[in-house]
Amino acid sequence: MDQIQIVSWLLTRRCNLRCSYCAISRDYKDIPKEYPKLSYYIKHEMSTDFVLDSLSRLKAHNPHCFMLFYGGEPLLRTDLPDIINFCNKNNISYSIITNNSDEVQPFIESLLSSTDHIQGLTSSIDPIIFSKKGDSDRVKKSLAGLERLKEYSSYIKDIVAEITVDKDTIKDLYTLVYELTKLGICSDITFIDIAKSPYYDFSNVSDERVLVDKSPEISLIFNEIIRDGLNVHMAKVLLPKIYEILPAELDCEVEKNVHNLTIDADGSVRLCLRIRGVMTPKLKLNNYIQKDGSLNPDLKKFLSRDKAAYCRRCNWSCIIMSQLMTKNPNLFNDLIHTKVREL
Q1: Looking at the chain, which terminus has fewer C-beta neighbours within 10 angstroms, N or C?
Q2: 3-49 residue pLDDT tens
Q3: Are 165 and 179 in contact (CB under 8 A)?
Q4: Could you report the per-residue pLDDT of 116-144, keeping only the tens digit for each?
């Protein structure tokens, strides 16, 4: 049975940062001729009504469907309070993925004052904060994000640190997750991904040397995180799966069972967060999901065609989670953190 477990929304392609590994908020070299330029997505951003109608359809499809509001930077959308209030009112689970930088703080304050509560907020915090070398935007957002998450944890229910690990920063992963766990903050661990072709338009990384390979050291770090009960999404089942597909060899099998969906800034459906695809974006979300929640058979057909043509595998942790939730729906409770452990 096809059932969507997690939906990633690129609410906007606009962003106040230009992190080196991200290609969503910029045009990039050798972009396929079938792909629109960034200016198209900015001009044709989906409307508030489209988002709210789509959320209703997804809720009818699966009442436990989990929404991830990405960008770009989603807080740059002035209608985000309307979207969050709708989710709160209709018991839709979600998290807002923000870079949490200085520039977006006024928008977070406005969101807090315009909503009765924020259920989930996810901030990028990378182990690069320990070395403070390399990408200045990445260091800046991680340092600021860590301090702010301490503050937010007192009035936002579900605080999550999104940790992106590469070959240079893996050594500090355990320390970062341990410190976050002490603060009652859960971690979502993902590994730097690579653009295996121009059709991989999410990642701007082309150097395979930054990827994390399987090794006894990586296995030890994962085992210590599990052994010590640190707060990581679905740690016991997710980390072994991540290790299995390192450096970037995941087959999500989304064409066999539609368990994950990604919506681009114009309301079209992508193959996945990593790859836009060519066939799948021909239709908007409301053409694929009926008001009663039923799925248009073309969704699976187009996903299958795009995956066969353009996917060369990846290591995206969210699509692993939705794949695991299809097999065990009880893992939803781990995703929304019904229990959060503090050390």
Answers
A1: N
A2: 999 999 999 999 998 877 789 999 998 999 999 999 999 999 999 99
A3: no
A4: 999 999 988 877 666 655 556 655 566 66
CA angle (199 as vertex; 205, 142 as ends), nearest 5 = 35
Domain 6-335, what architecture? Alpha-Beta Barrel (3.20)
Contact 128, 171 (CB under 8 A): no
pLDDT tens column, 266-286: 999 999 999 999 999 999 999
Cβ–Cβ under 8 Å, residues 324 and 331: yes
Tell me the C-alpha distance between 169 and 27, whole Å: 27
Long-range contacts of 168-173 (CB under 8 A, 24+ apart): 168/128, 168/131, 168/134, 168/210, 169/126, 169/127, 169/128, 169/130, 169/131, 170/127, 170/212, 170/217, 170/218, 170/221, 171/127, 172/127, 172/130, 172/131, 173/127, 173/221, 173/225
Q: How far apart are CA 219 and CA 216, in angstroms?
A: 5
Q: What is the distance between the alpha carbons of residues 198 and 310, in angstroms, rounded to a whole number?
A: 9
Contacts for 152 with CB less than 8 Å, ≥ 6 apart? 121, 159
The pTM (predicted TM-score) of the whole model is 0.92
Between the CA atoms of 123, 128, 131 and 134, what dihedral angle is there, to the nearest 10 degrees?
-120
User: Are 271 and 277 spatial neighbours (Cβ–Cβ below 8 Å)?
Assistant: yes
* 248 SS3 class: coil
Q: Determine the Cα angle at 334 with ends 24 and 257, to 5°.
A: 60
- What is the residue extent of each domain of the chain? 6-335
**Phi, psi values for residue 122, rounded to 5°:** -115, 130
Distances (CA, A) of 224 to 115, 188, 284, 330: 39, 16, 44, 24
CA 170 to chain centre: 20
CB 215 within 8 A of CB 191: no
Which residues, given as ranges, of the chain have pLDDT below 70?
A: 128-145, 334-343
